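Handout, tutorial session.
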Amino acid sequence: MPKKQTIKILSLLIAMIMVVGSISSLAHASGNLLTTAKDSLKKEAANKITKEVKEDLKKEELVEVLVYMKDQVDVMRIAKATESALASKLTPYANKMEVRKAVTEALMDKAEMTQGNLIKYLEQEKEKGNVEEFKSYHIVNMLFVKATPEVVENISYMDEVAKIYKNKRHKLEYIVEDVEIGLDSTEPLWNITRVKADQVWDMGIDGTGAVVGILDSGADWTHPALKDKWRGYDPATDRIVDPEKSWFDPQYGVSLPEDSDDHGTHVMGTILGREPDGSNPVGVAPGARWIAARVFDRMGYTTDDILIEAAEWMLHPGGDPTAAPDVVNNSWGGPAGIDDWYRDAVTSWRAAKIFPVFSAGNQRPGEPLPWPGSISNPANYPESYAVAAVDRYDQRASFSKLGPSPYDESLVKPNISAPGVSVISSIPGGYAAYSGTSMSAPHVTGTVALMFSANSSLELDEIESILASTADPLTDSTYPEAPNFGYGHGMVDAFEAVSEVAAGVGVVEGYVLQEGEDLEDVIIIHEQEITEAFEGSEIEIKARLIDDVAVTEAELLVKPEGKSYWFMIPMDRISGDHKDGIYRAVISSDMLVGNSLIYKIKAVDYAKETVVSEDYRIDIKFGILPDEYHQGFESNALGWIFDGCWDWGKATDSDPTPYEGDGLAGTVIGGNYVNSADDWLITPPIDLRDTSLQAASLRFHQWYRLENNYDRGHIYVTKDYG
């Protein structure tokens, strides 16, 4: 194929695409090609439906599924960006609250923006009787749907849908040893002393100020070991206060906490149980407050959609992100293996600075003894903190499931161990001894509450690191070295963990510098050039960053109008060096919502000192207006999208003479477009909402040279941003 000639398009275009080779086959698609396209679409849709759902589609009149949307929020990036933007202005506690609000709002916005078409379809089918019920979630961008097989199959063809999961059932499993024990003790029991919680109390730290949550069978709030600690109750006035922020019951809708089993009350007792007179101190953090969501029914069953709904409530109890707990105990789990259905929920908790504790899982009836890799899902997620069970002799309970995690065999899973055999705690009406990893997990939840009580500004990664480094290593003949896949890092040590974070004790981190090095903070030089942008466009931001040693990190922080969350965009160095360079980032079109946005530039130097620029505002317009717009590409190309070889700038000697001035837009200024060019030049959106307009015309000056029989140029008009 001969070398292509240069093509130049000057001034204004609506949209042009350069296609190499003949395009007649595109205009006259054969029947075979159309059939192939349909088959491909059908195959793609079928791949979205899991095997379990396909089986239900064949035999059920109504199918319960979870529809996982393709577009999910990067919650960790939202959290980091918000924290970066606010950290220098707020206390650690206030910063945590702002991050929680930002993560929640970003999740809600994503669900609202992406679920609209699907919800509209479901509403239409519900009127026809083909959909029995559906519910939208945002902690994961997902919907629960109970509908006919035909509706489920139709959903799979929607481009915005990524996966369709079966709405699975889960059974609560634990071992009841004694129905009831007459407990009357003022001394902590063996399990409490083994994790050294009593030694933490002697330090004057008992969990006060921390809030714990559980997803369980509920909890008996009238139990004397728990009543005064329920956040929805004020013992000073004997009144119920904002119960909707401290109790959620998607199973039965009961207004005050109760237990459909004994399980949740037992779990909660191990976390913080103690009676008002100080007797029966069965809990690790008796000064903490609690909230709960009842997810298991009176038969001990729950479903995925209820667990998702409860996880979402825990993110913002009663609609208030600032009411979220510091740590959530999950003494439940499903089968082993990879199953991502709950992973985004756990990640959202972490982004909101909520520590997720999970039981490692028990051997179930009919199962063999736990095998390597048997650890339950979601405990096996990298984001979950999994707890194994041991007896009073520090031997792993025979039922306690084993790592490694199928997600990453290099991870230590389970993460840690705690007492889980013959653990005495509260049950409705008294006290009882139960066994299971359900009983071991709350020891760690209580320990985390003690750590937050000692230092409320702790980060989750810090907590994990401290729990691991202070754990008492455990081994046996199967696992002779620690850490291992049976016990994790070993027995949780509340005293050592809290000692690491209590006031007056800390860790100093940083770089050892020679005298005279890195004495200056980064200098950010940025002159705002773009003050207006159009919907659907992209915005390029550049800044010069100067430091006496090195700029190690540069980010652009972007916040849409009226939102509490920030987007974080890494800035790349496009010229200069680490001491003095030009950095660039692009604000993508999906961030241009509302009437304006705020951006700022963050830079970090070698000494980890952070500098953040002032706020800059960009107004967002719907589109350019007829009779008011002219673009000569002299000083900017505001709102234009240059794809592939398209470019704009000053004309060179090899270019045609611009119609006016020196500026033009074309395919490779001063050169030839590539042989495989298939690229777009797109104008800003044109605002034609004025109904008084009789007509509107687009005029532009052009020069082009196309190679005959090889190249084509097309102009397209679209009414929906393409």
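The second record follows below. Compare its token runs with those of the first.
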Amino acid sequence: MFPKVLAVILAISPLCVAQVQLEFAPASGPGGSPATFSRVIQLPGGPLFVGSTSAPSSTSSTTRTQILLASPPLDNFVYPPAVGGRGNDVPQDAGVDPKGNIWIVGNTDSDDFLLVNPIVAQKVPYRTAAFVLELDPSRTKILFATWLCGQQSAPLGLARDPYSTLGTAIAIDSAGNVYVGGSTDETDFPTTPGAFLTKGGGYVSFSGETYYYSFLVKISPAGKLVYSTLLGTGSFVCSGGSSCIGKNSTSASVSNIAVDTTGSATVAGARNTGPGYVFRIAPDGSRLLWSADVGGNYGSVGSLVMAQDAAGDVNLLGEYAPLIHSPGDFISDLGTPGLFAAKLKSDGSALIYSTDFGQSPDSHATGVVLDASGNPYLAGTSSSAQFPMLAGVPNLGPDFVLRLDTAGTKALTLFRFPAGILNLPPLIDTQGRLLIPGSQASLLTIPPQYHFDTPAIIGFANAASYAANSGIYPGTLVSLFGFDLPLDPRAVQVFFGGRPAPVLYAGPNQINVQAPFAGVGPIQVILPSGSISLDQPYSRTLGIFTADGVHAAALNQDGSANSASNPAPRGSIVSLFGTGAVWPSNLQDGAIATSAAPFDQFQSACQAFEYGGLMPLLYAGAAPGIVNGVFQVNVQVLPTVQLTLLYTVPLTLQCFGLSSNAVRVYISP
């Protein structure tokens, strides 16, 4: 334990050299509903989160989805003007033009979406359309708002409207022209004369399928349509006779758009099957300058993200799935997904490099961003043993940011994070700092040349479920993740809102603590070299401890550990352990529970489910012999392998039903 004098000195002396910064924007809307953010953009005043939250509907008892803007710090809500309509308005991408105006593209089913000087002023009622929205730099005035969609009615006799248009990507050139990409299956999606492809998409009654084409629309700084073209991506073997003529894609997506100094746009995306694609379109939208298939040698590419450098070369990160062939060489299924990185020459003629990062079930391509030298930062998720590693880099989990050299032959920088720390494409600010958006509206800022040599907190989680950036609730066991932390728990002090928290474990990359029963607040971590302060959101989560991330750290009825070699007999009782319950406020922090104490049913209630079915729950309460804050539930197992614990407090408005992480237990066959 620190001497008291030293603790006081450190408490008032922030760690000035702690260059890595973790901050949070508000993760809920004005009414307290959780927010879902789709993009973070860099403004002169700092980063801005663009997303949506649920709100009460003004026309029914249901809820709607409304646009939400937020920025760090935690208490800094950014309320946009009355945008959108009374339906569901969901942003997908955003950008900033040379004047500082904010452009947002997304999807809406609002029939009363607020339009300003629109290009398309009508849509089919209740149908989902793409929208494009421009706000002034203060976010208080709508400068432009339009739908992008067709007008053809749905075929008669159908139970649902098969058509929709989706906006998914946006880019802005140096002159302020805006390029919007997405997908549509509307046969009358508005295109311009002389465009590369003017007809496509639609519904085929013979097969009941819709045919999505990707599209690219260019809008001038004044909000006028410059061109609109479809991009017929992919191929499809159609058995519907003449009704299939002209339909060459069952689905197509646009993930990213880049624009060069000539006004030529590069579009990257994926199809329903086969390789990903990259197109470069002439400045007037009349033709493709070139097109290239990417990743087909790895299998079917499910997503493809990209960034274009100053020379016009295209840096790519893709998610693939190997094709599994059955006898007769028919493709019967897709295998375990994987990731690949590639770089395409500026004329699309060949790949400069292509590297397989290996396969893992959690593989996901999140984004690509380039530094000032043109080196790509690739961001995503992978647990593959084949993924590149660098000496001295702590492996904290499957999320990664990897910087390669321009030749793609050398890994220059690598960060590995717990799952959920990274969930949106990264950015690089004007100072060259790497900005990593994560769950709960978190933003992790890492300066150039950081080498894991300065103490930093990069995230936290419920210590049982490892749900990222959540679990700050009285009594809950919490894991703090970071770099260059002390090895000795005695060299660490942690405070929640000024209250000391018991330190249960300390290592170079993780500190486990128990949040004080008396209340929580901003976190302060006191180290020998100084202190790190964190103003974080408070959220209650329910977690079940696991032995390996999948199987519960459970005890069989005889008190032995549940395992593959020691499964629980059918009909027997299994004890599971977790954290995140509601506890009496008079419990002592860090004390060991000496006896069983059931939860007060007026405060909390537990139910155990097996594949959605209710299981017999015999006990829910304190775990004798384990630190306060860990609960125990005893359930009677059925012949199944998956258990999910549902914990509800229905009488408290702020404590609605919570679902734990899904776990598995071993049961005798």
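Points raised in discussion: Residues 1-18, 237-249, 641-656 have pLDDT under 50 and may be disordered.
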